[in-house]
Amino acid sequence: MSYARVLSVGLLGVTGHVVEVEADLSPGLPAVVLTGLPDTSLHEARDRVRAAVVNSGQTWPNRRITVNLLPAALPKHGSAFDLAMAVAMLVSAGELPSAALEGVVLLGELGLDGTVRPVRGVLPMVAAAAGAGLRRVIVPLANAREATVVPGMAVAAVDSLRRLVDFMRDGAPLLEPPPSDEAPPPPGPDLADVAGQEMGRYGLEVAAAGGHHLALFGAPGAGKTMLAERLPTILPELDDAAALEVTALQSIAGVLPLDGRLIRRPPFQAPHHTASSAALVGGGSGLARPGALSLAHRGVLFLDEAAEIPSATLQALRQPLETGRVVLARARGTTEFPARVQLVLAANPCPCASPAGDQHCTCAPAVRRRYLAKLSGPLLDRIDIRLTLAPLSAAQLTTATEPATSSAVIAARVVQARAAAAKRWSDGGWRLNAEVPGPVLRRAPWRLPPADTADLRESLDKGLLSARGFDRVLRLAWTISDLDGLDRPGRSEVSEAIQLRMGESNAR
Ligand SMILES: [Zn+2]
């Protein structure tokens, strides 16, 4: 036989596509020719594969070998095709029978010594194979647990090319995937740990219930980070589809925990304010890596020290926050990653950042205004809740006797409130109050009686609120009403909503 065909999977963004790796031997000077839109990282595969084959004790076919990756129109990146390429060449040279690989997908990078190395993105690759009706996959041992997450897939593992060759030639056994971790995941942080800060805790609960972006202002030590990192603990667990997306993104980024489980808790990402745009939105050569924005998909993106973030980085965030996707320019076309995040932004009210309780801020009012003004275009405009956290006094810390409400209790309230909102807006196709357009809230049947919005109109007239702020207060009022189990917000819910909007009010 001088022709062979082996199955593998390529990734485009977070979506896998089954790829046929063909090899054909022809008379001519010894060479390996790669066709089918491979990128430069794949050209390096030729040398890796040759060394791995020879160092596994196999005969390298000293003829002209054409390796073609189909479909040709799909751009192909990375090293996951190595194993399939090596096997296709050996089969086409008549060195190996192909029967054992009928309908089997091969994934894995080869080391020069013939070891099979783990690759990024095995979970979405195996999911794509399953989606294409394939039922068997052979993956690197280090990726095997991750591959077993996909239901209905028979997973076998290899640690070397030699082991796969022995299997194909003599039926020697492949490796079994290690069993998944049965122990429950370690408990994360809990809102019960946060003493005092009642307004902050309430703002967090409203943010979770309505899907509202949140900004926290306050001096260092006011507890902004403690609150932000507890938002995922009161959000609903991810459903199957969302869990698969989130786990797949971590797989592609190469940061998936090796416990062989789907990620069910909404993720939390806190990139440093000096992080590069690439670290935030993603990129890199070969198979693109998702950035913090995509790793926070279906979870929380926390931007601390937001006023210190360079303007160019803020600009890079703008489009993804609007569309829920990151589009990366690549040498061959573009790559897209999902990035639907709930944003929590934290900032000191001024550049001097006096520690909590210190009354020695010397910044002029104009300086304070300018410090936050840079946030207002790209980020602050999208944020419903703006809270200024007062520093905790020693008295508050020492006299707090009752433990604060736990995350589990609040999470249950959030689930109920979300169900009420989803039911109310089902005709419009919105699930969360934060998604409902302002005009809908200002029109019948959802317009509130004038008596209930008197405070709100007054704030607008006095210039304490912008027109956009007006709509955002209405959204918050609906969320507060959902949390209280009411049919619609009344005057007191509207007034609470105004409170949640008025933090650092110079940044309207
Ligand atoms: Zn200051």
Ordered list of secondary-structure elements with their pairings:
Layout: E1 3-12, E2 15-26, E3 31-35, H1 40-55, E4 64-70, H2 82-92, E5 104-106, E6 109-110, E7 116-117, H3 122-131, E8 136-140, H4 144-147, E9 154-158, H5 161-170, H6 198-210, E10 214-217, H7 224-228, H8 240-253, E11 268-269, H9 277-281, E12 282-283, E13 289-290, H10 292-295, E14 300-303, H11 311-323, E15 325-329, E16 334-338, E17 342-347, H12 365-376, E18 385-388, H13 394-399, H14 407-424, H15 438-442, H16 454-461, H17 467-483, H18 491-501
Parallel strand pairs: 3-4, 5-8, 8-9, 10-17, 10-18, 11-14, 14-17
Antiparallel strand pairs: 1-2, 2-4, 6-7, 12-13, 15-16
Helix pairs in contact: 1-2, 6-14, 14-17, 17-18
